[in-house]
Amino acid sequence: MDCFTYIYKSNYSKEVSFQFIAHTVGLLQLFESVLLLICCCVSLWYHEGDLIAFGISFVINLAVGAALLGYGQKKEMGPSRSEAYIVVALSWVFFSFFGMMPYLIGGYIPSVADAFFETMSGFTTTGATILDNIEDMPHGILFWRSLTQWIGGLGIVCFTIVLMPGLGNGSQMLYLSEATGVTHDRLCPKIRDMARYILMVYISLTALEIVLLEAGGMGLFDAVCHSMSTTATGGFSTKQNSISYWNSQYIEYVISLFMLLSSVNFSLYILAIKGQWRQISSNYEIKWFMSSVFLLTFIITIALIVSNGYGIEEAFRKALFQVATCHTSCGFATDDFNLWPPFTWMLLIFAMLSGGCTGSTSGGIKILRIAVVGMCIRNQMRQILQPRAILPVRAGKLFDNKLVLTVLVFFAAYIVVAFIGWTMLMACGLGFTEAMSTVVSAMGNVGPGLGDYGPAYSWAAMPDLAKWILSVLMLIGRLEIFGFLLLFYPPTWKGRWI
Hints:
Blueprint: H1 18-46, H2 50-71, H3 81-99, H4 101-106, H5 112-123, H6 139-154, H7 156-163, H8 171-178, H9 191-215, H10 220-231, H11 249-262, H12 266-273, H13 277-281, H14 284-307, H15 312-327, H16 342-354, H17 367-385, E1 393-394, E2 398-399, H18 401-427, H19 432-443, H20 464-478, H21 482-485, H22 490-494
Antiparallel strand pairs: 1-2
C-alpha cells in the first residue's frame, strides 16, 4: 500500500503531541552525535586538526538530543500520521542544521549558506558540492561527507529503527513516512526485521565494493568513502576530479556496476536471500529500468563515436558511467558531458528525472511512476477510440484507481515544484539552462547540472539565496514532495486530515 493510503491502526489522537515529536527527534539527534563520534575517531587516527571541530559538534548534538529527550515523552501506542510526517521532516532539517557544525566550527566552510548546502547535499545524497579544494580537507571531514550520504541513502529513521530501539511502537509509521516509492513491500511481519534485512544488504554491497576498489588500486580510505557514496547513490568524492582522478577503466566499471545495483529495489535482494527467484524475474520495474539504462547508453555511445571521435570501448565506458550516474542519481563524473552533442543532454535530463527503482537509494521521480504515467496516456488514447472499454493500469500487478491517482498527483506536483524552483533560480540571476538543470538535479538528488554547474565545476559561485532554494529542493526531492510540504499544511499540526 502507498504510505498516504496506509491505515495505521493505533490509538489515534486528534491533537499532535509535541512531547512525542521532541522525544523522537531527540533520539535521532543522539544517533547523529554517535556519527560525529565516529568521525572523531577518524580524526584521531590521522592526527589531524578537525578533531576539535568534531568534538565540539558531538557535544552540541548530545546536549540538544538530551534536552529534547528531557522535554519529550514516549508515546506507547505509536504516533499518528501527522506526528510521523512531522518527525521525519524535522529530523532531516535538524540533521542537516547540526550536521554542518564541523564545517563551520573548523572553518572548513565558513559560510552558513555553503555549510548547510553541503550538509543537505550529503544527507539527501544529492552530491552537489561548493568545495573547490576537496583534497585539502582533512580525512575526518572527507569521511563525514561520505558518511552523511551513506546514512541519508538508506534513511535516518531506518538506521535508527535498527540501531536504537527506543522508537518502539512508532517504528512502523515512521518508516513508512520516510520510505520512498509508489508502494512499500512488507516482506517481514515486523518493520524492524525488514529494516535489518535492508541494512544487511546495504552493508554487504558497501563492503563488497570496498574490496573490489582496493583490488583496483584505490587506497583503503578512498575505497571506503567512495563505496559509501556509491551505495547511497550520493556522489561525494575525496578528489576534486571525482572518479576521473584515477584514470582507471576497472574502477569506472566497478562503480558503474554498483551504482546500478544500488538503484534496484532492495526488496528484490531480500527475495533473493529467501530464494524467491520467480518474483524477481517477474518484476517489471527492474526490466524497464535496465532497458532504459542500456538504450540511453547505446545511443550516447554512438553519438560519442560519431561526434567526439571516441574509440568504441571508451565511448561505451563513458556513456555507461554518465548514464548510470544520472539515472541512479549518484553524481560521480568521469567526463564533462557539457562537451557532448547537445541532444545527449536531454537524454541525461530524462535519466535524472526518471531516477532508479522504488525502494532503492536512488532519487528522481522513479521509473515505476514514469511507467504508470505512460500507461495512463496510452489508456487515454484507447479510451478515445473505445469509450466503453475498461482499461486497467497493470505494471506486473494491477494498480487500483486510488494508487494511479496518487502517482499522477505526485507527477503533477513534481512538475509544479520544479517550475517554481526554476523560476526562482532565474530570478536569482542563473541562466536558463543552469536554472533548469540544477533544479532537476537538486529535486532528483543527482548532483551535476549543465553549463556553469556541470560535472567539471562546483556550485560555489552560485548566489547564497540560490543555494538556500536548492537546499530546500533537495529535501523536497528526498522526502518525495508531500513529506516536506505537509509541514506547511495547517491540518497536519492539528492532527486531523480533511
